[in-house]
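Lecture notes, part 5. Sequence design as translation. It can be helpful to think of inverse folding as translation between two languages: the language of shapes and the language of residues. The source text, in structure tokens, appears below.
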């Protein structure tokens, strides 16, 4: 069989697929995978190495570690799907990568509370507002925040820790404002002890994510916003291994004369269709 015939035969094998979207995705995947193999003239030994790599990615996954998300992130596929699915009018807060360290049962806090819950780092105050694109406050928005400590670890990465740290859920007040205490975000390397790390080392890529604070904001009638706030001046802003930095998401953690470090960031939600 000629190379083009192989591709055509595989695409034809999906012709009975009832779900048109599944059929389109499988056919396009095969087309581009075959084109990739031809482009690099993939050897059998190289493809075997590729299969070993993908096997190792799967074997590294646990209920606390998602190496496939990490792979998608470092290949820019996560940010490509964010870009494809989150086009918003100017003025709305931009989205970025979700990352592998969100948990869906974080503790609930009141405004003013300290979400660090013992995580190590320099204390800071975070405040801001949630508004819509008309500038109206969005009250009672659910605000999920999560971040690493100053050693670069999320609570879920610490084997001997069995309570949440540096993450929590709050709600915006009637005027759309929110505030909480936490620790100043610091740059950290993405997990390097798995096959994705081996790939980054082999390709001389930086593992360091610029300092950031994660947010997921949900409110009735609005699109869910998944984003980060990045720290202005961070040395790794241009080198993010997961390509998540957007200029509009960079903000200053300001050291006040009163000794308090404060981040102020306003979020603008897009109305749901
Ligand atoms: C994070 O920011 O938590 C993250 C995102 C992508 C890969 C690794 C970590
Ligand atoms: Fe992060």
């Amino acid at each position: 069989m000629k190379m083009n015939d192989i591709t055509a035969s595989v695409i034809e094998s999906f012709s009975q697929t009832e779900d048109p979207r599944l059929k389109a995705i499988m056919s396009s995947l095969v087309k581009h995978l075959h084109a990739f193999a031809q482009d690099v003239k993939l050897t059998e030994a190289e493809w075997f190495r590729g299969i070993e790599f993908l096997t190792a990615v799967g074997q590294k996954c646990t209920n606390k570690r998602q190496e496939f998300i990490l792979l998608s992130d470092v290949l820019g596929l996560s940010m490509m799907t964010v870009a494809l699915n989150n086009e918003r009018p100017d003025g709305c807060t931009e989205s970025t990568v979700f990352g592998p360290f969100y948990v869906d049962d974080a503790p609930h806090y009141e405004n003013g509370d300290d979400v660090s819950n013992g995580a190590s780092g320099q204390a800071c105050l975070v405040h801001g507002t949630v508004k819509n694109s008309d500038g109206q406050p969005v009250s009672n928005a659910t605000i999920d925040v999560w971040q690493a400590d100053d050693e670069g670890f999320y609570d879920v990465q610490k084997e001997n820790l069995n309570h949440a740290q540096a993450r929590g859920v709050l709600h915006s007040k009637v005027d759309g404002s929110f505030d909480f205490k936490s620790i100043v975000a610091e740059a950290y390397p993405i997990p390097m002890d798995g096959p994705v790390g081996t790939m980054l080392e082999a390709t001389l890529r930086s593992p360091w994510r610029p300092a950031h604070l994660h947010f997921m904001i949900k409110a009735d009638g609005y699109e869910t916003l998944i984003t980060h706030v990045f720290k202005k001046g961070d040395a790794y802003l241009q080198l993010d291994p997961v390509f998540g930095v957007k200029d509009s998401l960079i903000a200053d953690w300001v050291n006040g004369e009163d000794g308090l470090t404060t981040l102020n960031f306003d979020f603008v939600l897009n109305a749901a269709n």
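The translated text above is only one of many valid answers, since several sequences can fold into similar shapes. The chain has two domains: 1-42, 72-269.
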